[in-house]
Description:
By secondary structure, this protein is of the alpha/beta class. Among the domains are: 157 residues, FAD/NAD(P)-binding domain, CATH 3.50.50.60; 104 residues, Polyamine Oxidase, Chain A, domain 2, CATH 3.90.660. It is built from 15 helices and 16 strands. β3 and β4 form a beta hairpin. α2 packs parallel to α15. The longest helix has 13 residues. The site of flavin-adenine dinucleotide (FAD) has 34 residues, from α2, β15 and α15.
Amino acid sequence: xxxxxxxxxxxxxxxDELRRPLLVGxxxxxxxxxxxxxxxxxxLSIAYRIASKRPDVEIEILERTDRCGGTIETWSEGxxxxxxxxxxxRPHPAFWRLVEDLGLGDAFAExxxxxxxxxxxxNKKKTQLSWITALKMGxxxxxxxxxxxxxxxxxxxxxxxxxxxxxxxxxxxxxERSANVDADFLMPSLTKFGDEPPIKWSKIKKMMAxxxxxxxxxxxxxxxxxxxxxxxxxxxxxxLNTFENVKFHFNQDLSKPEEVATEHxxxxxxxxxxxxxxxxxxxxxxxxxxxxxxxxxAVSEVRRGYGTLIPDEDIPISGILHxxxxxxxxxxxxxxxxxRIMAPSxxxxxxxxxxxxxxxxxxxxEPVIFQKIGTRKIPIxxxxxxxxxxxxxxxxxxxxxxSGVSVTHVIAEAERIADLF
Length: 421
Ligand SMILES: Cc1cc2nc3c(=O)[nH]c(=O)nc-3n(C[C@H](O)[C@H](O)[C@H](O)COP(=O)(O)OP(=O)(O)OC[C@H]3O[C@@H](n4cnc5c(N)ncnc54)[C@H](O)[C@@H]3O)c2cc1C
């Protein structure tokens, strides 16, 4: 593992991503050949960062399926366009750096400022979500919970003042109730997990803000690609295919790093595992993703915004995202709006139940398009997860199955790993 203390320069490059441990096996940086398992965003961006820097290192990318991107996939039909999973990136300079390095600046833009509002649907009533909502739960409770949040190994429910808001948030991010989610994993800055910055965090944030290439994002905004997240995957694959030192292998059936090392004649320390491992099916939740598109007239009563989170388990839907409101590029034909619907498998939501529910909570009108566009499995990160990470591995581990849920995390991690070379 890398030295625990980072320089100010590191903090400015990576911010609180540095609170997450980098799970690097010994001697990784002396490898002359690397085997990267998994061609999701993590495996692809690690390969891209190392291959760009070290043309002398051979890189084999080993993927179980016949496609790249893993969780990421963009669905389209005619002028309708929607990401099945990741639809946008939260601001982080590492993500912006990758977009710039891949020459994707023209296809990448900030979310629509008119679509910032998020709502919670509780007891059939919509409430706007904000820190004020949390404060309404009681300032003393908020203060107490934030103070207790630094004790460690707690669930998000334990550190957050309102369990309802915490549930809505964790359901929206990891499809799981807040009592079952590790606070150190989801919000390491709040719980003060890992290393502390050498100067005040607020100063570091200001310094980071000056390092964004392309454009400096507004507070609370997200950013996306005009052609959906698949744009990023396609650009990474295209670049990797131009490198002579990188080879892709698809339809690989691998279960252990030892097996990879033997088959590809590398020491185990040259294996970078960016796929699930040591996880049973019980350590995942899953959800179905639908799109529903309407003529503007049918949804004129639905306010423009980011979307609505629905913690109530009796409702088949946990979230409705206003895709065509949020993104700066069109996601629907003219005079239409597109919504993405999350239906957790734990709520046993059939297609019919989702359709009926939309009529009750979004609009009585029939959608002009309604489709299930995918199902995704999401790793569970139970309380204590970060504190109990096994950091003494002979091989390197990366990606969201292991160390962090957001794409900004995955991209920052790739740069941190490549820095070692
Ligand atoms: C519905 C949903 C919405 C999301 N929205 C956002 C968002 O808006 N913003 C955000 O920042 N993040 C979001 N995320 C999280 C984001 O998708 C992940 O952080 C990121 O895509 C993870 O990339 P990865 O490469 O680590 O994993 P994956 O994308 O899962 O890739 C893993 C790869 O490994 C392969 N593989 C698996 N097992 C093996 C094996 N044994 N051998 C070889 N290959 C194997 C898989 O086929 C896959 O290609 C969302 C996730 C979901 C499910």
